[in-house]
């Protein structure tokens, strides 16, 4: 059996067992982002970028 065939077989077995499907939680996403160092309360926004294009006055 080739490598791709083994991977396909493993994926089929996981979906048949139902172990691959995990319930998602909206709070879990925020927890994952906070683990990387970002905070929901302390949002750092980018500064305003000046526009180089001059719009003509009609």
What does this protein look like?
The protein has 58 residues and is mainly alpha-helical. The chain is 43% helix and 0% strand. The chain has two helices and no strands. It is elongated, with a radius of gyration of 24 Å. The chain starts with a helix and ends in a 23-residue tail after the last helix. The model has no long low-confidence stretch (mean pLDDT 77).
Summed up, what is this model?
By secondary structure, this protein is mostly helical. Helices cover 43% and strands 0% of the residues.
Question: What portion of residues belong to β-strands?
Answer: under 5%
SSE succession: HH
Shape: elongated
- Number of helical regions: 2
What summary fits the major beta sheet?
A: none
Number of strands: 0
Question: What Rg do the Cα atoms give?
Answer: 24 Å
Mean residue pLDDT: 77
Q: Any low-confidence stretches, pLDDT <50, length ≥5?
A: none
The oligomeric status of these chains comes to single chain
Helix and strand content put the structural class at mainly alpha
Question: How far from one another are the termini?
Answer: 72 Å
């Amino acid at each position: 059996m080739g490598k791709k065939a083994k991977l396909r077989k493993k994926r089929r077995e996981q979906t048949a067992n139902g172990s691959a499907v995990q319930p998602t939680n909206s709070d879990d996403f925020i927890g994952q982002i906070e683990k990387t160092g970002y905070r929901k309360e302390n949002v750092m926004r980018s500064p305003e970028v000046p526009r180089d294009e001059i719009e003509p006055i009609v």
